[in-house]
Recover the amino acids of this structure.
């Protein structure tokens, strides 16, 4: 099974600042994921021609399971997180990660009925401050909606903005999660045109077996957004001997 985590920057290129959602679609289609964890997905923004990107992406990528969590609201439109799934989403919750007066953030919690069994999938976008991120991670891990499904194999992915790579030590590591995006120098994802920071991360817990994890480097991915996407190939069953 394949998961792609991608901050799409509302479809605006990181280098030329042009809005072209087709470039995002090309990157996604080339990787052919079963699950998508997207951040900064816009809806109703004048800068993005007031496109309903959650609906458009669901239709054009061809993944019918769709969950959109608006987090930032402007006078016209806004943006947020989006999960797309090839398989049924059995349950879901949206958790606010708003921290004081800082930009609103959020996390999506979904139970996905994969062919290998149920998977707890978390898509989040964390803040820029270290103390902010620490609170957001603790809030999510202790949230009732997360704890209800904590017995399931789990993947937590998204734009963590964790440039110092601290979350794996505390609080995510003590919660039983392992980091799929280690060592950080192999997973530099920002800025896309010349990536120097490992901001996009994935963690897993329980019977999740990571087959391959990599940052998607291509001409298209370097132009489509200000982040490079993160790809995971994984299974909920161990490899056959």
């Amino acid at each position: 099974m394949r998961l792609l985590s991608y901050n799409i920057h509302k479809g605006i290129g990181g280098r030329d600042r042009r809005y072209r959602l087709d470039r995002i679609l090309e990157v996604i289609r080339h990787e052919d994921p079963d699950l998508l964890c997207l951040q900064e997905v816009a809806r109703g923004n004048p800068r993005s021609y007031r496109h309903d990107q959650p609906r458009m992406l669901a239709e054009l990528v061809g993944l019918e399971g769709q969950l959109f969590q608006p987090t930032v609201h402007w006078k016209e439109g806004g943006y947020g997180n989006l999960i797309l799934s090839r398989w049924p989403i059995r349950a879901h919750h949206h958790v606010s990660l708003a921290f004081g007066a800082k930009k609103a953030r959020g996390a999506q919690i979904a139970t996905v009925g994969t062919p290998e069994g149920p998977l707890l999938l978390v898509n989040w976008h964390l803040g820029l401050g270290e103390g902010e991120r620490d609170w957001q991670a603790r809030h999510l891990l202790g949230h009732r909606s997360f704890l209800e499904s904590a017995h399931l194999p789990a993947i937590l992915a998204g734009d963590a903005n964790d440039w110092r790579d601290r979350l794996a030590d505390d609080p995510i590591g003590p919660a039983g999660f392992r980091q799929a995006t280690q060592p950080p120098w192999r997973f530099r994802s920002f800025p896309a045109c010349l990536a120097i920071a490992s901001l996009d991360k994935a963690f897993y817990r329980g019977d999740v077996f990571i087959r391959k994890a990599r940052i998607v480097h291509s001409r298209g991915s370097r132009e489509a957004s200000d982040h490079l996407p993160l790809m995971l190939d994984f299974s909920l069953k161990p490899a056959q001997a």
Remarks:
- The first strand starts at residue 2 and ends at 7.
- The radius of gyration is 16 Å.
- The domain at 2-235 is CATH 3.60.10.10 (Deoxyribonuclease I; Chain A).
- The chain has a mean pLDDT of 96.
